Amino acid sequence: MRLLVNGSGWISGLIRLAGRYGPGEGRSLPFRDLNAAERRVWEAYPTGTPVDLRDGKNDDPAEGHTWARGRAVRAEVLAALLLGISENQPGRVPGIRLAGAHIVGDLNLSDAVVTSRLHLLGCHIPGIVSLNDARTRGVRLRRCHIGRFRAGRATIDGLLDLDGSTIENGVRLDNCHVTGQFRMSRAVVGSPSVPSRGGGTEDLPGWSQPYNAGRDSEPVTQVAVAVWAGGLTVDGGAFLRGLRTTGGLRFIGAHFNSGLYLEGAVLSGTDGHAVFADHLQATAAEFSQGFTATGAIRLRGARISGVLSFDKAALKAQGRVLHLSHMQVDELILLPDSVEGGINLGYSRIGVLFDRPDCYPENVHLNGTTYESLRGPAVLADRLSWLNRDPDGYRPQPYEQLSAYYRRIGHESESRRVLLAKQRARRRTLKLPGRVWGRLLDIVVGYGYRPWLAGLWVGLLLAAGTSVFSHWRPHQIGLDESRSFNAFTYTIDLLAPVSVFEQRGAWEPVGWTQWLANGLIVAGWILATALIAGGTRVLRPSNTS
Known about the structure:
Elements: H1 9-21, H2 36-44, E1 51-52, E2 72-74, H3 75-82, E3 95-99, E4 102-104, E5 107-108, E6 117-121, E7 124-130, E8 135-142, E9 145-150, E10 155-161, E11 166-167, E12 171-172, E13 177-178, E14 182-183, E15 188-189, E16 194-196, E17 221-223, E18 225-228, E19 233-234, E20 238-239, E21 244-246, E22 248-250, E23 255-256, E24 260-261, E25 266-268, E26 273-276, E27 281-282, E28 285-286, E29 292-294, E30 296-298, E31 303-309, E32 314-323, E33 328-334, E34 338-344, E35 349-355, E36 364-365, E37 370-375, H4 380-387, H5 396-408, H6 412-427, H7 432-445, H8 452-471, E38 475-476, H9 487-495, E39 507-508, H10 513-539
Parallel strand pairs: 1-3, 2-4, 3-6, 5-7, 6-8, 7-9, 8-10, 9-11, 9-12, 10-13, 10-14, 11-15, 12-18, 13-19, 14-20, 15-21, 18-22, 19-23, 20-24, 21-25, 22-26, 23-27, 24-28, 25-29, 26-30, 27-31, 28-31, 29-32, 30-32, 31-33, 32-34, 33-35, 34-36, 35-37
Antiparallel strand pairs: 16-17, 38-39
Organism: Planotetraspora kaengkrachanensis
Protein name: Oxidoreductase
């Protein structure tokens, strides 16, 4: 006879009978035939006394199916105790503290209000532990082997502890609220292989069975999610250090009010996202110190009031490996040991960006990204290479942002070099006339950011003109006046757009020097125009703060 605990209707009758007869021979059905292990648990419950069924020889929970029958405890017995079938003793704290048991059946506490503690250590639980829509005290299932754990929409007043446990078919904590800490360090979690329509999952039995849709059915997708926890709220820290999963983590809209810690975790077996956590909110998020993910890390729209760290992480995905767009974070540490795939930081607001040149792949989206400070060993050339990796091509904002940063910290020279690189990148997007004129501006005055180039050109042309016209003097135009020729002032008059020394109209070059004179006049106009255009660009106020 299988007993399900989904409510409290039948339990009130059992409570009355248990109160009448106690735990002896007059015990009510279905608990009249308790085995020795169950009797120990029943008698220990009112005082919360630990019950240890381990024999010291074969205590691996994964081998629980091979344990002796004397270690078997029915899940329905535990559920009945937690729901109040046994009377409490005044002055004592009731609870289940059980080690080394083989829990038979599903431990179903859905919709229940559990006021006593549940602590299982090293137990074999091949069925489902369900706390859906329940309100419980702290729950500790340490180093257990569990078929599946569900606590959707549950409220856990205290600690939720799954440290060191193996959960074969995943953990589901959607919209769960944990007022204490959430611990799942060194746990091993698999993912249910369930087809879904529209990208969701279904809580159905037969996880590993193949799914064959009919010819007219909607297309389905296979979702590999080990921890399904959209909307999860954890008031204490969430410690998932050393976690091993076959499947991803789904934390969409989750709140980690004291931080999320995944140091050393290894997430594998995902076809798409290793972490899907859009709009996550946390005081800190550590994907660091050996964190390894095969699949994308998506934190689009996340709000992290402290540090988001990928220090010494190994990240790999097809396409985009880090999707961190539209995010707000106080400090982003991008120092992975290895990274394969693109990075998207578009439209994110970052306080401090701590990185190094070799941590970026070929594709980096930076359009709309703002930051207050940059840390790391990167020099200006590295930063310019960083800006040129946008697969969407030239975008002005990343250059303006970097230039504004250098200007803000007093590095005006670097700021101007960034703006010069911006103009050169923009030139590649123009049509042929624009590219030609841009090239000319670049050569002559560096788009106005290198005005000393104009002085250099003037000096070279002045020296050339003076040398040539000193050897091949032009003819005087008006012979009725006596004039003395000066090659230097004559060359200056040719270069100046407006005659200054009135030498241009008094002397006429001869032979091939006419071409030189005309070239000097054209060069003078080009230099003047370039200086005006460049100066206007430099003096124009920037829109980037």
